[in-house]
Amino acid sequence: MQVYRTLYLIFYVVFSLAPVACTPNRPTSFIIGKPIPNLGTIELLQKNKTDKIKDFRRFDDKVIVLEFWATWCSPCLKAIKHMNSLSRKFVGSPVEFISITDESEAAIRKFLTNNHIDGLVGRINKNLKRNLLGIPSLPTVVVIDKSGGVATITHPAFLTAKHLKKILDGQTVVLPPPMEKEKILDINDGPQPDFLAMIRHTIEDQHNPTRIGKGVLEQFDVSIIELIAQAFRLTPCRVIHSSMVPDGHYDMVIRQAGKSTNVLRNTMKSVLGDAFGFKFKKEKREMQVLVFSLKSEDKEIAVESNSGTGPSMLICDDRRITAKNAPMNLLTDCLERKLEIPVLDHTNLKGKYSFELEFSFNKDKNLLLNAINSSLDEKLGLLLSHGKEDTEVLVVE
User: Fold this and answer.
1) Where are the domains of the chain?
2) pLDDT at 14 over 70
3) How many helices (H) and strands (E) are present in the chain, helices listed first?
4) Phi, psi (5° rounding) for residue 185?
5) Which helix (H) or strand (E) is 189 found in, with range?
6) Considering 33, 106, 233, 246, which has the largest number of Cβ atoms within 10 A of its Cβ?
């Protein structure tokens, strides 16, 4: 029997931080499955009132969602909307949301005048060092189950209502932990496993090329939406998300010895679904599109179809599209990415074509469309026009 070395890593990297002292008979830091460590007295600052939490017995038989954050932390601010949304889903349920920071009362109250947080806002002693508490980055969420044990430690974006319902029901939830940069492994270091699936925040100053081929699919410094689009062989403009999709750029590596790109993409779907709690559903929706057509019904495309014996290639640059032996779907895919709107091919052209389109780059999509249309008309006798049609999209929930 062949034994495979399996390594499954899901990394979430944010910023480096720091954390706490402790009392006897309690852990010194947050550890999954262990009781909550001593956080000292937590001052609650809500509107003009001040309350205090000296221990968590007042929340007996409740699930507690502790979010460690700061007013100066940009990712924390982006997470507020998601945490507020979660909080509203559990109104009337035995779930308590507490956002904890070690900043001054004045700084917190100033922040709250312009930013609303649905849950309680708590202030802990600055002497409680976050890294000693096991909180390596901000924002970090620690969920305490009804028995007072740590259920999970993760980034707010990973936590969903589905996970909290499971914790309420006493079920185990496994979510990716926040990690410090120093703990990130070099994916090319040492013997390579037969199976590797990894997603992590992009590491600064690390430049790696995209690789897609037999047994390997690697993408670096791209958004979650771009990763989802790659997994389903769609363009990002066809990915519709109603849930909170994490911001920022990510690296994703899938390695499965000898496997086809279709198998690798299926692995991507599973990893993205497991890591972020996504559910994917393909459906058709009526939406604004660009329709690709021959400018004149009795006019043939201005370039001849190739024999189709050579490899297909299409290079899609800011100011030029170069095709060699390329079918029309490669051109529509390029234009979807460039114009950020679905493009539907109504030309009924089945051949493969070689051509070069040149146009002026413009950040304004309407002006860019005009420039591309001028080149399409001149070189190919084709036209892109606005329309509204049922279009296949991927819904992320």
Assistant:
1) 17-179, 185-278, 284-396
2) no
3) 8, 21
4) -85, 150
5) none
6) 246
Per-residue tokens: 181? 């940069």
Q: Cβ distance 130 to 17 under 8 Å?
A: yes
- Cis geometry, peptide bond prior to residue 139 (ω within 30 degrees of 0): yes
pLDDT-based confidence at 210, cuts 50/70/90? confident
* Whole-angstrom distance, CA of residue 315 vs CA of residue 334: 8
Mean pLDDT of 127-143: 82
- The whole model's pTM is what? 0.54
> Residue range 208-221: average pLDDT?
81
C-alpha distances (whole Å) from 57 to each of 15, 40, 188, 382 are 32, 13, 48, 71
* Cβ atoms of residues 391 and 238 within 8 Å: yes
Which string of b and e fits 91-109 if b means at least 16 CB within 10 Å? eeeebbbbbbbbbeeeebe
Q: What was the pLDDT predicted at 388?
A: 94
Q: Which CATH architecture has domain 17-179?
A: 3-Layer(aba) Sandwich (3.40)
Q: What angle do CA 242, 243, 247 make, to 5 degrees?
A: 115
